[in-house]
Each structure stands twice: as C-alpha cells, then as structure tokens.
C-alpha cells in the first residue's frame, strides 16, 4: 500500500512539474507583431564609420589623392589635411568638406570619395545575437533582408528557436519589437517569412526550451 502511494505521488509530482514548466514557458513567451515585409528606405545613403577604408581622389592632383582608413576616433588624415572628421558623413559630404579644406592650398579642388571597405557606424550596423552559428555585427546595405543576414551569420544553431526570434528596431515612435519566423524561412523554405532589415536593427534568436 505504501509503495503504491509513493508511485501515485511521483506521477502527481511529475505532471505538476510539467504544468509549472508549461506555465513558466507561457508566462515568459513574448508576443510581438510580425515584422513588416517591406522596410527599406528609398533615400538611404551610406554613412561612413570607423574602420571603413576610403579612397580620396583629387582631380589633377595625384599627389594629394590617397587611400586611408577611418581611425577609431572617426578621423582621417593625409597630405595638407590633418584630423578631418569622416565618421557620420556620406561620401559626398566628406568630399565637399575636403574641397573646402584644400581650397586654402589649391585652386578649385574637385574631390571624389569612394568607400572600399565597409564597416559603417555602430548605429547603422545590423547586430545578431543568440543562437546564430556566428553571432556578429554586419554593415547594413540597401534592400538587406533577414535572409541575407542569416546567410552571413551561417544560419541557426541546433538549439535555436528560430520562430521565436525578434527584431528590435528604433523608430520615430520609440523602440519597436517584431517577431520573425527564421525556422520557417531557413529550414522550410517559406519565402513569405523573409522581411526587410533596417539600419540599426538587432536580431535576437532565443534558445529552444526543448
């Protein structure tokens, strides 16, 4: 009789534990609206950031032309120019600033700036955290989608709950959070689950409970 009561207690305790875990999972689950399929901005312009490589071409003045990295402090330096801010500017804006600086030394300078190594500013990078094969920060590019991001980070780990992934996005209305179905997209080929990314997005991929 005593042994039977012990068995009943174990079964009751087991199912009670399952119920508690289920309640915790339901309580911890976050429900967010699905990410909008289209989010790219037609007027997006690349912003130079630390670590970028820039080619500066001064027309008819090859001795002033140069290829330089943007330093961690956001500055560049070269012939006749010291510590010019580059971070946070478009290539065109940097070219116009350099023309103003060079006008002191040469007549009517014409400058072209070409970015060749892309890192971008931190505020515009796409960050992937959690159960990605290679979590990292990526430079944003025009019309970038979540599928592009997942290819760059090597897909999901075996422990990922891809359909519980979320995108954290800053907007004029504040910080927004959207759900994305990464498992459906990557492992089941559901193209409808692919959505646009925006500069500064953070993609969070949680671990599966089971």
Please state the CA-atom Rg, rounded to the nearest Å: 26 Å
Proportion of strand residues = 15-25%
- Supply the CATH superfamily name of the largest domain: Outer membrane lipoprotein wza domain like
Put simply, the count of helices is 4
Largest sheet properties: 5 strands, mixed
Model regions low in confidence, pLDDT < 50 over at least 5 residues = 1-29
Q: How is the CATH topology of the largest domain named? A: Outer membrane lipoprotein wza fold like
Helix % is: 10-25%
Order of helices and strands: HEEEEHEEEHEEHE
Q: What CATH first level of the largest domain would be assigned?
A: Alpha Beta
**Protein structure class:** alpha+beta
Q: What's the number of structural domains? A: 2
Mean pLDDT: 87
- The N- to C-terminal Cα distance equals 36 Å
- Give the CA-based shape: elongated
CATH architecture call of the largest domain: Roll
What is the spatial order of strands in the main beta sheet?
7-6-10-8-9
Number of DSSP E strands: 10
Folded structure, characterized:
The chain is an alpha+beta fold and 210 residues long. It folds into 2 domains: 53-117, wza like fold (2-Layer Sandwich); 125-210, Outer membrane lipoprotein wza fold like (Roll). 24% of the residues lie in helices and 25% in strands. The protein has 4 helices and 10 strands, in the order αββββαβββαββαβ. It has helices spanning 2-28, 91-102, 146-152, 182-186, and strands at residues 53-58, 66-69, 75-78, 81-85, 111-117, 126-130, 136-138, 165-171, 174-180, 202-205. The strands form 3 sheets. The protein has a 5-stranded mixed sheet with strand order 7-6-10-8-9, with no helix packed on it. Strands 2-1-5 form a 3-stranded antiparallel sheet, with helices on one face. Strands 3-4 form a two-stranded antiparallel ribbon. Strand 1 and strand 2 (66-69) form a beta hairpin. The longest helix is centred in the first third of the chain and has 27 residues, at 2-28. The radius of gyration is 26 Å and the shape is elongated. The protein starts with a helix and ends in a 5-residue tail after the last strand. The model is unreliable at 1-29 (pLDDT under 50).
């Amino acid at each position: 009789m005593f042994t039977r009561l012990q068995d009943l207690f174990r079964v009751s305790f087991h199912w009670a534990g399952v119920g508690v875990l289920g309640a915790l999972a339901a309580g911890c689950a976050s429900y967010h609206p699905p990410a909008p399929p289209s989010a790219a901005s037609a007027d997006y312009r690349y912003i130079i950031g630390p670590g970028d490589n820039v080619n500066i071409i001064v027309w008819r003045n090859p001795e002033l032309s140069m290829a330089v990295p943007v330093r961690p402090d956001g500055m560049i330096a070269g012939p006749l120019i010291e510590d010019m801010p580059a971070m946070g500017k478009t290539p065109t804006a940097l070219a116009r600033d350099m023309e103003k600086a060079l006008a002191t030394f040469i007549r009517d300078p014409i400058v072209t700036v070409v970015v060749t190594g892309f890192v971008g500013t931190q505020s515009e990078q796409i960050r992937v955290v959690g159960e990605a094969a290679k979590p990292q920060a990526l430079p944003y590019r025009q019309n970038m989608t979540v599928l592009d991001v997942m290819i760059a980070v090597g897909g999901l780990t075996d422990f990922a709950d891809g359909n519980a992934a979320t995108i954290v996005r800053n907007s004029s209305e504040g910080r927004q959070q959207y759900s994305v179905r990464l498992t459906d997209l990557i492992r089941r080929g559901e193209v409808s689950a692919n959505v646009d990314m925006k500069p500064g997005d953070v993609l969070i991929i949680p671990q599966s409970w089971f």
